[in-house]
Design brief:
single chain, alpha+beta, 4-stranded antiparallel beta sheet, two-stranded parallel sheet, 6 strands
């Protein structure tokens, strides 16, 4: 009999791990550059004062960017296989022409040939209830072709730009995992990487890792993609989530409150956080700190209430009380 049959959940899980591995690699490329060449008024490296240095830096990074391209394609393929597997895992064996033996023995599913990458989009559109968009199929085939060139020749024949690959990843997530909380997924999979072994909550955490990326994450995602990915406009006012700030604060990492706002007003008495995907009760009242213009105060049991979601100041300890 056939053993170790894959599940759609397992395939999708690996696809997402690869997806966020590629994302993390791209963000890290920018972080490393910014540590040496501090961004000016225009944070875009191609438009700021370090444009020439950025071009040389990215040119030297081409082998790594090509490797990221390969990871993106592998993530795509596994995600499509997960969709087919959800109908029946045995559909993955179409066109495999397996050779069976009259001698009874177990056959490991992983030893059998599954659908070729080139056939996956057509298989999904033929076998699954939800078809893939034409735009996605075109992008999939382009990245597959580049991956094959890199795999067989050691180079893809073109230069890659991090921002283009990030845009590709955003479109991939919207197509394959639309409806999932992207930022919550980012934290979840950051907690399952190799370096996460060292996350103890005291000195480092997955939340602190992702919160540190937030300025680059939000800057990298276009307005239209932001709306699709998060369900709100990119210009929507965002607030502090006290729960996430607490989880991100460690002995080695002090959260920059101004750049770490992940929550938005769901209605006049509810704040929703994009990172933890939780709702928190609030009240509309002016913050008691003189230079804070915030008027969203926590009513959540998590923070004990009375904490400003704009500046993070506990209203019971505000300067006006002294």
């Amino acid at each position: 009999m056939i053993v170790n049959i894959p599940t759609p959940q397992a395939l999708d899980d690996v696809a997402l791990r690869l997806y966020f591995s590629a994302w993390s690699s791209l963000i890290r490329i920018r972080q490393d550059f910014d540590e040496v060449y501090v961004p000016g008024e225009d944070p875009r490296p191609t438009k700021g004062q370090w444009g020439e240095e950025w071009s040389e830096y990215i040119q030297q990074y081409q082998p790594e960017l090509q490797a990221v391209c390969s990871v993106i394609q592998q993530s795509n393929e596994l995600a499509l296989k997960a969709r087919i597997c959800a109908v029946s895992p045995y559909l993955l064996l179409l066109n495999s022409d397996p050779k069976f033996s009259t001698v009874g023995r177990d056959i490991d599913f992983s030893e059998l040939r599954t659908l070729d990458a080139v056939d996956l989009p057509a298989a999904v559109n033929s076998l699954c209830a939800k078809a893939l968009s034409d735009e996605y199929v075109q992008a999939y085939n382009e990245i597959r072709s580049l991956r094959n060139k890199f795999a067989h020749l050691g180079h893809a024949g073109q230069s890659f730009q991090p921002e283009e690959l990030i845009a590709l990843l955003v479109r991939q997530y919207v197509e394959l995992w639309n409806g999932r909380p992207w930022l919550k997924d980012r934290v979840s999979f950051a907690s399952r990487t190799g370096p996460a072994f060292f996350h103890d909550g005291k000195y480092s955490s997955a939340v602190s890792e992702v919160i540190d990326e937030l300025p680059l994450i939000f800057a990298a995602i276009t307005k239209s993609a932001f709306k699709t990915l998060f369900g709100i406009s990119k210009t929507t006012r965002r607030y502090l989530c006290h729960s996430c700030i607490y989880e991100a604060t460690t002995r080695f990492y002090d959260v920059n409150l101004e750049k770490s706002k992940t929550a938005f007003l769901k209605d006049n008495v509810t704040l929703h956080c994009l990172m933890c995907d939780e709702d928190y009760e609030i009240r509309r009242q002016d913050c008691r700190v003189d230079d804070c213009k915030g008027n969203v105060i926590s009513e959540s049991e998590y923070s004990g209430g009375d904490v400003c979601h704009t500046c993070g100041q506990d209203q019971r300890d505000s300067p006006e009380d002294s």
